[in-house]
Amino acid sequence: MKLAMIEGDGTHAELLRRYVKAWGAERHVPLAIISFAGREDFRSMWEEQYGVDALLVDVRMEEAEKKDLAGMARRHCADLAIVFTAGIAENGEEKTEGSRRPPGMEKLFRCMDRVLHREESRAVLTVNTKGSMLELAAEKIMFAQSRENGSVIEFCPQRGRTFQVECADSLAVLEEQLSKKHFVRCHRAYIVRLDKIRRVSRSGIELKNGSRIPVSRGIYSELNRMVRQKSGGNG
Questions:
Q1: Do 213 and 192 contact (CB within 8 A), yes or no?
Q2: Which of the four pLDDT bands, split at 50, 70 and 90, describes residue 186?
Q3: CA distance 177 to 174
Q4: Pairing of strands 54-58, 2-6
Q5: SS3 label, residue 234
Q6: For residues 7 and 12, what is the distance between their CA atoms, to the nearest angstrom?
Q7: How many separate domains does the chain show?
Q8: Same domain? 42 vs 135
Q9: Which pairing describes strands 161-167 and 124-129: parallel, antiparallel, or unpaired?
Q10: Are strands 204-207 and 212-213 parallel, antiparallel or unpaired?
Q11: pTM of the full structure
Q12: Measured between alpha carbons, how far is 48 from 66 in angstroms, rounded to an integer?
């Protein structure tokens, strides 16, 4: 993930950078961070930074100044996520007890989690369907099943509507494209999206759209743990 950061206070900038790096390390997200000292610095260099995923802006700027920066950034990156950050702490330090994160870090982690979810929700799976290429939104995929001459993907673009998409790609090829955070090989012939699972039992997996698929004995316990963790994380 590529981030741009505007923070005029050097101490706060360093603390913000440290917090962002800690978030990336905990979430296993590789980061590239470009820093700008202020609005004019940003204006002069922004054209070289197209393609960033998120812009972190000091919330203490004047409202008109923030709107101006946001507008300029989005003229070139329409889908850019903008996170307004307050001065993280007095004198660039935060006090906390025990192993708890400082309040400023906790708030930043929540903001960055939303940015990450936003980026992941736009991910697509590109498949070969009888000679033509088709893009499927990864967040709408229920599962993929191996077939003799390729695979079948169960795709649910909206509640109550489910489609089967046949493709020439093998299950291994699909697995390479799909995020390991959201998809898991639950059986030698199946990949399932974790947040589409309603429940896991010894006899198989029940999905939220009513479909049922098998689960291997070797992954049953781990899959149950992953599903509980996913449900807790989504609140």
A1: yes
A2: very high
A3: 5
A4: parallel
A5: coil
A6: 7
A7: 2
A8: no
A9: unpaired
A10: antiparallel
A11: 0.54
A12: 20
